[in-house]
Amino acid sequence: MDDVVVRPVDLAARVDDALAVQALAFGLTEDEVAVRRHIVLRHLINPGACAYGATTPSGRLVGFVYGMPNDRTHWWSTVVQPYLVREGNDSWLDDSFVITELHVHPGFQGRGIGRELITTITDAADQPRSILSAIDVENPARFLYRALGYQDLARQVHFPSAAKPYAVMGAPLPLLRPN
């Protein structure tokens, strides 16, 4: 991470840079990027929404995270709520900071950038806990979340138009740090 700095970012101004990172990291098509652009811009107007970026010395955005205080009326919450109720975990939707997106350019993964992004944004949150959703497979992202203290709250969560099921995870704040 020597050459990458994590700091607050005006994500609305850099939405195209961020979505280019997400498209590479997540394998999105141009049509999916166009849809997500509107979603990101809409999310950023929510009270308490904030974003951090990981940039190189030249200003290239190589990673980003954004989130906001959770609201049960938001689309994401309405989708995951029945799954959380089934598992007895729906109280996690209250007084939580939701990590909406976290992506690192594939060429910069494995260097601690994702860890720095998520711990920085959650350290600034006013809520006592954090929630997020991640594709429900064992992968580096899920290993990272578990290392930070996130635990599965519900699995096999199906979002409309998503090909793969997700897991909803939650962690008390502040997140764990390696010893």
List keywords for this structure.
179 residues, alpha+beta, seven-stranded mixed sheet
* Element-level helix/strand string: EHHEEHEHEHEE
Give the number of helices: 5
CA distance, first residue to last residue: 18 Å
What percent of residues adopt helix (DSSP H or I)? 25-40%
- Shape by Cα distribution: globular
Reported for the largest beta sheet, the result is: 7 strands, mixed
The radius of gyration over CA amounts to 15 Å
The computed structural class is: alpha+beta
Strand % is 25-35%
> What is the strand arrangement across the widest sheet?
1-2-3-4-5-7-6
How many beta-strand elements?
A: 7
Q: Give the integer mean of the pLDDT values.
A: 96
Protein described:
The protein is an alpha+beta fold and 179 residues long. The chain contains five helices and seven strands; from the N terminus they run βααββαβαβαββ. It has helices at 15-26, 30-43, 75-86, 113-123, 140-147; strands at 5-8, 50-55, 61-69, 96-104, 129-135, 151-157, 166-172. It has a seven-stranded mixed beta sheet with strand order 1-2-3-4-5-7-6. α1 crosses α2. The longest helix has 14 residues, at 30-43.
